[in-house]
UniProtKB/TrEMBL annotation:
Substrate binds at H9, K13, T35, G36, T37, T38, S55, G56, H88. Its EC number is 4.2.3.3. The lineage of its organism: Bacteria, Pseudomonadati, Pseudomonadota, Alphaproteobacteria, Hyphomicrobiales. It catalyses: dihydroxyacetone phosphate = methylglyoxal + phosphate. This is Methylglyoxal synthase. The active site is at D61. Catalyzes the formation of methylglyoxal from dihydroxyacetone phosphate. The gene is mgsA.
């Protein structure tokens, strides 16, 4: 069982929810963590048990980063919107830096999320 973090920028939340719905059976075998809004939406739409952290801009991104640094997260699925400025861009960069530094599976879009899930 992998410990998977789920997060998506606002314009990508619908896409992440649809991806999670399509992979419900595979994801249900893993421990899921999500930032507040993203995790709540995935849970409501799919029935998957997602442990909720704070909303991304309110510290949820940093909580996921801390989990990575402490070895408590194996995978980060983060659907990033590259076309919209993010007011908490510093937090986003820190989270992606930690995922890279600690060498966890890191998916930033649907294609990479498909590959990561297949590898699990």
């Amino acid at each position: 069982m992998a410990r998977i973090g789920l997060v998506a920028h606002d314009d990508k939340k619908d896409e992440l929810v649809a991806w999670a719905h399509a992979h419900h059976d595979r994801l249900s075998a893993h421990e899921l963590w999500g930032t507040g809004t993203t995790g709540s939406r995935v849970n409501a739409a799919t029935g998957l048990q997602v442990r909720l952290l704070k909303s991304g801009p309110l510290g949820g991104d940093q909580q996921l980063g801390a989990m990575i640094a402490e070895g408590r997260l194996d995978v980060l699925i983060f659907f990033i919107d590259p076309l919209s400025a993010q007011p908490h861009d510093v937090d986003v960069k820190a989270l992606t830096r930690l995922a890279t530094l600690y060498d966890v599976f890191f998916a930033c879009n649907k294609s990479t999320a498909e590959a990561v899930l297949a590898a699990l």
